[in-house]
Design brief:
Elements: E1 6-9, E2 17-19, E3 23-26, E4 34-36, E5 41-43, H1 44-58, E6 68-71, H2 85-92, E7 100-103, H3 106-118, E8 125-128, H4 139-147, H5 149-157, E9 161-164, H6 172-175, E10 179-182, E11 192-193, H7 195-200, E12 217-220, E13 225-230, E14 238-243, E15 258-259, H8 261-285
Amino acid sequence: MLRKFCAAALAAITMGSICAGPVILGGDDLNDHGSWSGTANIDGWLYIQNALSNLVAQSTYPSNDGTIVVLGAAPSTSTGGDSCGAVYWPGQALTPSRTVTCINTAASITTYLSGLAAGTNRPLVIVYPGDGAGNGVDSAEEAAWAAGATAISNYVAAGGGLLGHTGSYTWLATLVPGITLSSTCEADPGATLTAAGASAFPTITNANINTGPCHNTFGGTFGGLQVLANDGSVPPRPFILGGGATTTFVAQAQTIPTLSAFAGATLVLSLGVWGGLRLRRGNREA
């Protein structure tokens, strides 16, 4: 499973903690290099099945409707080379199976993200299909993603799950400040799962993620994200990232300062000691 990181919030020291939703971001076009055989997902689509299984299990978005939503693909049940089919069939293979809704056109994406921001749309997982497979994100739809970046960031900060494939990722820096995207990527063959990746994707091997070329690698600041797979470059470059951290995915509308668990406990203890000393002093003066 992906590691999730939580941090105690200063504004709610006595009320528990905040924990962001799970995220898997890839420079891959594995949605273009897989298929549904009629009985099982193959290669890149088996990777997507593993990724969705992980995200569905860990998404904690409140009052979610249990659905997976693909923003930037027309509805389709195609069994190969299609950005909607690449989520639909993996979604059907989950236990229990999930409703997959694919939303096409920039206007429809804008409307959906407005509903997300307003709280009327409450999916369990959102998928960015990128532009590496057929029926993927076009330039106008990418612009709609970029315009809705704050809604996406707030959604993840509130516990929602997010899966991404290769594309322009124009919205990504809003979600992960300091991250960079490179168009240099070597795979097919050469990409390898890290130990964290093998744990996150238990039913796939390096062969499954080497079924097609990769297009992007990541650099800069990853926040709480782990490297789940490296490309075949020497030295290797991060190819797929995953995880979640409140220090990275902070709601843009209302940023909440955070403390480490140790610092929060120390502050509470200090306040308690100070209050006790004040009380004893007051009793003596009385």
